[in-house]
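Researcher: Go.
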Amino acid sequence: MGETSIGIVSYLPQRIELSVEAKDPPFVTPMTAWPGWKLTVDGGRAPLVSYNHAFLGFRLARGRHAAVLRSMPDSFVAGSVVGLGDTDDQPGSASAPFPRGVSGYWRRLS
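Model: Structure:
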């Protein structure tokens, strides 16, 4: 490992943007290993590596790079996709709280 300069460009609750300048290929460990973090380096997806079972890190080549970490757990993404498909609000669709015909019964009781 050689000399590397890392600057925080932006630090938000679910998004961290770093500016990295490396004379030698570095291994960067910016955070704890909570699930759901995704990494892009210079605009392309890049893998995160578990380090010491407690931290996330990533490898970079020599040079100047822009690294962006985003918290987007897979469960959040899956829930969003299911929610997007639920737009017709028809009886028997995913948005109806009860099977076809049952929701009318509950409306009559109220």
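Model: The longest strand covers residues 4-12.
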